[in-house]
Hints:
CATH superfamily of one domain in chain A: MetI-like
Structural class of chain B: mainly alpha
CATH topology of the largest domain in chain B: MetI-like fold
Shape of chain B: globular
CATH architecture of the largest domain in chain B: Orthogonal Bundle
Strand content of chain A: under 5%
Helix content of chain A: over 70%
Order of helices and strands of chain A: HHHHEHHHHHHHHHHH
CATH topology of one domain in chain A: MetI-like fold
Radius of gyration of chain B: 24 Å
Number of strands of chain B: 2
CATH architecture of one domain in chain A: Orthogonal Bundle
Helix content of chain B: 55-70%
Distance between the termini of chain A: 16 Å
Largest sheet of chain B: 2 strands, antiparallel
Largest sheet of chain A: none
Order of helices and strands of chain B: EEHHHHHHHHHHHH
Strand order of the largest sheet of chain B: 1-2
Oligomer: heterodimer
Number of domains of chain B: 2
Shape of chain A: globular
Number of helices of chain B: 12
Amino acid sequence: MAETSIRSRKGPVTYLLRIFVITYLAVLVIWPLWEVGQQTFFPPDRGAGGGFGAFVERLSDPSVSYAFNLTATVAFWSVVINTVFGVGISLLIVRYRFPGRRILSVLVDLPMSVSPVVVGLALVLAYSTGQGWFGSALASVGFYIIGTTPGLIMATAFVSLPLVIREVVPVLEEIGTDAELAASSLGATGWQTFRRITLPSIKWAVVYGVVLSMARSLGEFGAVKIVSPGAEFRGETATLLIQNRYTNYQEPTAYAAAFVLVLASVLALVVVSLIRKEDHV
Amino acid sequence: MTQTLVASPPPARPAGRGPGRAGRPGRRGRGSAANGGLFRLTPTSGLGLGVALVWFSVLVMLPLAAVIGAAAEGGWASFWGTLTDAQTFAALRLTVVEAFLVTVVNAFVGTVVAWVLVRDHFWGKRVLDVVIDIPFALPTIVAGLVLLSLWGPDSPVGVNIVNTREGIFLALLFVTLPFVVRTVQPVLIELDADVEEAAASLGASRFTTFRRVILPSLVPAIAAGSSLGFARAISEFGSLVLISGNTPYQTEVASLKILKFLEGDNQAGAAAVAVLLLLVAVVTIVALDLISRRVARRG
């Protein structure tokens, strides 16, 4: 859009606002991020070594590798579950008519607004062997959720549940049903229509949702904190490791792990902005 | 990352999905489009819906019901007693006050940031645009650590915010930064230049134009962003774990109070506070749904 005259006029207020915004973001976000890098590679005193070598050494500690492995496993499964569920429920909400459809479309957004602590508490109250509603029943068939990896996956899947849905629903609404109707009138089965018509048009929305879910799953803390035993080699995910190490005066390890997660989130942001460009060209 | 949230203009809807749909039960064959766009359930999609609903219930609805159940177990008196207990009440009040202050700051600053990002042009603007999303993308515990690296015990500027209310305020300000910015930005981009030109040509000053012409169209977006930010601030946990010293009456917030109840094996207490947070979450999404529908109607 061509700039109109009134919008391109610049006065002292323009520059004041610009300086204010740059300063605000620099102090609130950029400077602290820079300091994380400093603390990771040049830890102040404490006799801790600095540089890249020390950074790698801290990360190769077995308990740290365990934590990152666990985080990757949990994130992988929760993303798989959320993608299948998310695409399915989006199709149902947008394309089909059934009682309670509107309520469901509002409810699926709920997990994002619920405090992670409440999510953890909810899972404990429902599924813990001691006090949960269904805990004893599940335990009697040898299935334990709280304190095990399935519990971590459920907690993570809970908090990142709406991310795929939020991306896919608007696209489905926008593309409409014409092409799908044409396909089925030409004799395509439901699955063929989905694979050949619907899926290609929601492809980028799905990828986008997957990246967002992945980023969210790698970094989940509150819900995981409550359902996990959270001890070294026992359900300690990367985020729990950061808290435990920091509070146990092993800041360099905490910063090293945090730095990896910062890199992962920035990478996710970059991928997301690339996808958006791809999507709109 | 919130571009797809409520306040963005609703996508074009397929024609004919309007009034008349509700009162007419589909009489056509299965799989056919009833009233432009909504299919009736086929056995396959019905099965899919069943599976999806079971999973959604197991994962979300039943656990949340268990929270409400646990809170209600002791009856109204014990629920009320827990919440009005001096220490719990102090935590709740602190949470609400801090969240409110942060929301007010965000409503102003977020609008200004969105304005500069849309209307101003300068070198490095694209970088700032990415920076806005960082607080969202960072894991919350990392966000806490990030703030501590600058304002913590090893602060290079000699300011230690650990265990202060200012620290809580700062952490909440950090994690809620994107909400208002990301809801206001798309609305500002969509704004028509004509009305501003008209206002200016009629002699309105730039400030008057902003106040009378631009601001009114931004208000729903600011409201939506603010309520999202408020809900987030109320329920924030991860970034506060390391920063809030968790001192009763001083720096203890609601989510950390839940954790403390749980660690003390007081499930009913934890559930009582959790129900309050849950209520805030529900009110927020309902309010947002209403705002976005109002905006959609007006558009």
